[in-house]
Amino acid sequence: MKQMKYKACLACLMAAISSISCKEDTLEVYHGDNYVHFTPGTDGSVKAEYNFATGGTTAETEVSVPVEMRIWGYLPESDFICRMEADEEGTTALEGDFVLPGQAVFRKGLAVDTLWVTVRRRQELLATDYTLTVALTGADGHVAAPSGYLKAVISVKDRLTGTAPAWWNTTRALGDYSDMKFRVFNIYLGRYLDSLADYTTITFEEEVARFKAWWADQWASGNYRYYAEDGTTPLYETIPD
Length: 241
Known about the structure:
It is a single chain. This protein has 241 residues and is an alpha+beta fold. The chain is 19% helix and 26% strand. The chain has three helices and ten strands, in the order αββββββββββαα. A five-stranded mixed beta sheet has the order 5-7-3-1-9. A five-stranded mixed beta sheet has the order 2-10-8-4-6, with no helix packed on it.
């Protein structure tokens, strides 16, 4: 039975990385070793990304980003601990930008499990842009290898494209486009608005009127204080009445 499980696990891994060569490491599975590493993409790199401007509710300030881990060898018969640390090389994140657990549990019977890394949006909108490199430093009772798959790079952003979405120019309800105006509108909605399919002309104009009133209230409370290009006009005042 163990041999059958091993073959299934090995076949799954080889399908995922069939185009990648492990020249640096000799993985001697026939000696009974189990190898643990992050799951590489088709290009051989291990990457994850989160964009606060388009993901989740768009108002989130903290999320957990999944990084997949994988076993090459026999399926584990008991839970075991994998140890992690932030690698300074390739990391631009500041201390308060993330929470990395020093260890994660890889659960018994699984060929694939997940490391969850907490990342945070910086206070000023559209200002978050950093990377966090996570290094897998060891795994109890298992071998952390191959070396090429022991680091995962997480990119964290709060970014829009710099151009108006296609639907923006079909209405004048919001006025001239700006990334910041669109960003705050999405926070108000609690989601990234990619079309006006859920609105009629009238209901969208009503939504925008509620948004402008909401933003004015937020401004009075000291929130979302962003200005138009002249540097003096509150950005919400550029939304037509």
